[in-house]
Structure formats: C-alpha cells, structure tokens
Amino acid sequence: MNSIARRVLRSVKHGRAAWLRASSARPGKQRYHRMVLGIETSCDDTGAAVVDEAGCVLGEALHCQKEVHLQSGGIIPVVAQQLHRENIDRVVQEALCASGVSVADIAAVATTVKPGLALSLGVGLQYSRGLVSRHQKPFIPIHHMEAHALTIRLTHHLEFPFLVLLISGGHCLLAVAQGVSDFLLLGQSIDIAPGDMLDKVARRLSLRKHPECHSMAGGQAIEHLAQTGNQELLTIRLPMQQYRNCDFSFSGLQNVVNNAIVQKEKEEGIQEGEILSCVKDVAAAVQHAVAVHIIQRTYRAMLFCIKNSILPSKNATLVVSGGVASNQYIRKVLQNLADANDFALLCPPPRLCTDNGVMIAWNGIERLRAGLGVLHSTAGVRYEPRAPLGIDISKRVEEDSIKVPKLKEIRWLAS
C-alpha cells in the first residue's frame, strides 16, 4: 500500500482529527489547532466533547438521565450521582473515539466545577483529576454559567460586550459579558429557576397523566399544551412588580399559579391529581406569565446598559441560552423585545442550550487562548454548588430605578 492510500485509510478509521494530525506531520504543513476535552456533570446529564481552537467539534457524547428522573418526578441527587459514576468513563471514551484523538493529543481537560448539584459535580471533578494526573495535562476548571454564556461565540462571530440572559432548569440570570472571564451580574432569580417552576406546575397539573404528554418533561409538556390553549382565560399576577431591579422570582409566580389551579379544581369539582378540562388554557397562561416576567426584567437590563454606556446604543446584542431558551414562545417574545429595542437576538442551537460537553470544551478553548485559569495541578481545586458569576452590580440597577411598561402595555410582544 502506498503512502497516499495509507493516509486515506487512517482518515476513515480515525476521523477528521487523525487526518489533520497526519497532514500536519508532512514538511511545510501548519500544525493542527490545539484541542480541549470538556467534561460536564453539573446536574443530570453526563457530557463530554473534544473541540479545537477553530471551533470545530471533533467528537461529542452525552448520556441523558431524563427517563430515570421522569419516573421519580424529579432529580434525586444520589441517583444522579450514581448514574454519572456508571456512565462518565464510557461517555468520555465515546467522545474521544468520535474525535479520533487520544488524551495524549489534547492540550487540556476542562471540567465543570461550579455551580450545580454537589454530588454530580464531585463525580466529574474526581474523574478529571485522575485523567490529568495520568496523562500530565493542564486542567481548566469551568464555571457552568460562563460556559453557557460563551457558547454563542462557538456558533457565531460575536465580539464583547453583549447582554446575556441564561434561563434553565437550575439557573436564571442577566449579565453583561465583557470578556472571557469578565462579567457584570445585573440580576438573578431570588429563589427557583424558570425551568424548575414549569416542571413543578406540570407535576401539580398531573400532566404525565395527559395522553399527549406522558413521555414529556414538565416544561416541554407546558409548551406543547399551551400551543392550543387560550392564555386570556386565566389572569396571573406577576411577582416583584414593585421592585425596579433585574431580579426574578419564579417561586412567587408558582404560588400564584398554584392558587389559580386550586380555584379551577373547585370550579370543576375535581380532586388534585385529576386533569382540568381547561388544562391547555392554564398551560398557555402560565407560559405567558413566565415569558412576560422574563421580558420585564430583561427590558430593564437593556435600558440600564444603554443608559450607562455598558453596551453600544445601536446594534447591541442579547444572547439567550439555557434549556428554557429552547421554548419557542419565550424565544418569540424575546425576539420581539429585541427588535423593538434595536438589539440583535442570538441563541445557540437547541442542542447546545441544554447541558453538554461541547460548551465546556469551548469555554476551555476560550480560557486556554486567553491564558486564564489554566492549572498545572488540581491540588486545592474544589467543586462549588453555589457560585456567583462575575461582579454583582444589581444594587446599581436598583438605584437607577428604571421604569418599564406594565404587563398590559407589552402584551403585543407575545402576539
């Protein structure tokens, strides 16, 4: 077999990265880009990926625990931990195999260490410690929310600064990304996240018993039923209207919704656990209320950033990421809000909005290029279940006391 045939065979067997490696070995050819292995175990998904400096996803793998947690009605930390332990090595090896490279070929290992479920974070950190120790590789600890915020720079050519709205099952915040590790926190949920609230409302409505929703996660079921519901048939009072800041309260919103559900059950003469005849209207009203609560706080963040010259007055960008960003209704109203305020709206593709190894590997690439947080020892590295993102300037936002339109004045945004 001649040399050309051997190179072609290697590319078929080992993938694109192996072909790059073979090509770069020839005289006069530029060396291939540095690569980072990313590992994600912050909650209930075990993810791994290999990404290079050019933004190419060379290989990825993901193990989702959704079906297990659906059966138990929510995430049980010890169960999530055990599933991570059982699957992490296989997931990492699958990502490496798909990429065609080995740990010896990568420049660093990047792993989520904060914030998240303590037991889940511990699995990823322990596994990564062993990996970097055996292969003598640099380690890059990753802030989960920073990774979500910067994923957009993998999929789009976007320069700093930009406004970020992160909405998921575990987090909700507004921040300005000024650099790779430079964030200004404008506001966050003071209690639970929007995805958590939607899941709890779905359980209260017993949507797993609904014939259209038995295999859907809570938020997905709410979105599905809301498509054919009438949001006008139920009025939901929004929380925190008296506070002119960028904080959120989805627990407060959930309490209002639960009271409305109890009232509807009394009107229909049914017990908790039975399906309301107006369940689609309730779902539509709940989804709308969540969307408008998010809009109002995001609108204030936009006005604050423009007023204080934190973002340019024209052609500023709003980035929306996290699992709830895949809700098409919420994305639509955010698009309308952005259009009305001369902001561009950018969202990663849905598969990169939820937790995954790609975003962790990409954050590792960003930090590697910037020379930020690249460690040559894991001694002293600890996981942190709670960890703020950037510098908190939420008090400054509240001091500016910026007024935004009330619900009835911005209903057009959802049309």
Automatic annotation (TrEMBL):
<comment type="similarity">
    <text>Belongs to the KAE1 / TsaD family.</text>
</comment>
<keyword id="KW-0809">Transit peptide</keyword>
<dbReference type="InterPro" id="IPR017860">
    <property type="entry name" value="Peptidase_M22_CS"/>
</dbReference>
<comment type="function">
    <text>Required for the formation of a threonylcarbamoyl group on adenosine at position 37 (t(6)A37) in mitochondrial tRNAs that read codons beginning with adenine. Probably involved in the transfer of the threonylcarbamoyl moiety of threonylcarbamoyl-AMP (TC-AMP) to the N6 group of A37. Involved in mitochondrial genome maintenance.</text>
</comment>
<dbReference type="InterPro" id="IPR043129">
    <property type="entry name" value="ATPase_NBD"/>
</dbReference>
<dbReference type="GO" id="GO:0061711">
    <property type="term" value="F:tRNA N(6)-L-threonylcarbamoyladenine synthase activity"/>
</dbReference>
<protein>
    <recommendedName>
        <fullName>N(6)-L-threonylcarbamoyladenine synthase</fullName>
        <ecNumber>2.3.1.234</ecNumber>
    </recommendedName>
</protein>
<keyword id="KW-0819">tRNA processing</keyword>
<keyword id="KW-0808">Transferase</keyword>
<dbReference type="InterPro" id="IPR022450">
    <property type="entry name" value="TsaD"/>
</dbReference>
<dbReference type="Pfam" id="PF00814">
    <property type="entry name" value="TsaD"/>
</dbReference>
<dbReference type="GO" id="GO:0005739">
    <property type="term" value="C:mitochondrion"/>
</dbReference>
<dbReference type="GO" id="GO:0002949">
    <property type="term" value="P:tRNA threonylcarbamoyladenosine modification"/>
</dbReference>
<dbReference type="GO" id="GO:0046872">
    <property type="term" value="F:metal ion binding"/>
</dbReference>
<feature type="domain" description="Gcp-like">
    <location>
        <begin position="57"/>
        <end position="362"/>
    </location>
</feature>
<keyword id="KW-0012">Acyltransferase</keyword>
<keyword id="KW-0479">Metal-binding</keyword>
<dbReference type="InterPro" id="IPR017861">
    <property type="entry name" value="KAE1/TsaD"/>
</dbReference>
<dbReference type="InterPro" id="IPR000905">
    <property type="entry name" value="Gcp-like_dom"/>
</dbReference>
<keyword id="KW-0496">Mitochondrion</keyword>
